[in-house]
Write a structure and sequence with these properties.
Blueprint lengths: L8 E7 L3 H12 L4 E4 L6 H5 L15 E2 L2 E2 L11 H15 L3 E2 L6 E5 L2 E6 L2 E10 L6 E2 L13 E4 L13 E5 L3 H12 L4 E4 L9 E2 L2 E2 H8 L33 H6 L3 E3 L2 E5 L2 E4 L3 H26 L21 E3 L5 E6 L3 E2 L18 E2 L2 E2 L4 E3 L16 H27 L2
Parallel strand pairs: 1-2, 1-8, 2-5, 8-23, 10-19, 11-12, 11-19, 12-15
Antiparallel strand pairs: 3-4, 6-7, 7-8, 9-20, 13-14, 16-17, 17-18, 21-22
Length: 424
Amino acid sequence: MTKPFLKSHYSAVVVGGGQAGLSASHYLQKHGIDHVVFEQKTVAHKWKDERWDAFCLVTPNWQCQLPEHPYDGDDPHGFMVKDEVIAYVDGFIDKVKAPVFEHTSVTAVEKTGDLFRVETPIGTVTAESVILATSLYSRPAIPRAAERLLDTIVQIHTADYRNPGQLPEGAVVVVGSGQSGAQIAEDLHLAGRKVHMVTGNAPRCARFYRGRDVVDWLADIGQYDITVEHDGMTKKRHDTNHYLTGRDGGRDIDLRKFALEGMSLYGRMRTVEHGRMLFDADLTANLDHADRVYNGINALIDKHILKHGINASGETVYQPAWRPETDPTELDLAAAGVSAVIWAIGFSPDWSYVGLPIFDGTGYPVQRRGVTGVEGAYVLGLPWLWTWGSGRLLAVGKDAEHVVGHLAGTLAERRSMTRQAANG
């Protein structure tokens, strides 16, 4: 990274120094476009500061495809652990050498005439274009019901969880069964902690099926190339990711199996009242939904194998290892000896600094592969911006290349028109 003197004007301003912002900087440099990157914290801080100690990739290493920085280790079908992921990302940071101002938040982005006005604590700059690469994961989501928990119960978000030892002795409630929640629940469970797992509508996926990683099968089928404009895919932007893990070489996460081993499961949390956590009576439905998705993905693979005459044995349909006798609707936290609650219900975006008419009624930017309706304004790094891998190491670089290519073309056209006007 380099930190140049702050100029008053740039051709492009990038907001956010994560993998999306760095990928944008990479392509801006290739196009010779002067730019600056503003990062509120530190470059790639989410990988370094918001992952637990036992964290590892959920997708195989070969899917690490940042621009001109593919995974080049000796275990493409393995799953890098936290320190290895950080080393991979640091290698990309060193290659890009982006002009980044860290610890510099953007407080306002507005457009006046043909230029954008970008405000920061270190000064205000103008730009002909702006790339918003701050993702949907800005603010840890904590429900208002958390305020009703007793002060004696430790509360943390998944972004702050590191290991079981940081929590006081006693039972732990994990609220949310997405990727992070399921893996953290497993981390606690393997450490011998009593875990109360609050489920939602998160789907699950097999790790291996018919002799291969499911991700490899899905790549062959073309699932990672399907765009958000395919029939029925738009809603994917708001879907919860499938839960599974790459831990210890990779395996399924089966909440039913955890229940057989002593983990307590509940439906979606409704609220907290008088020392009790209250739940919807939908645990059975949640588990069944996750299994339907699991079996549906495997059936898709079965169809692919049959169609192409592939020699791969082991066709199976998952049968529930455990079923709840009833759907529990409350948990007395004190009686259960609960000492900590981990909120694993995701994050919320922070677009408060953006004064541009680019959002729909849900607060999601209206765009087509990162190109918004406001000329010169782009977004990058969002889940399902274009494909399944858009918000991840797999395809964020491809989207950045597209966005910067569009940006470069727009700049060239605008400057050509300006020259023509000046020449009469």
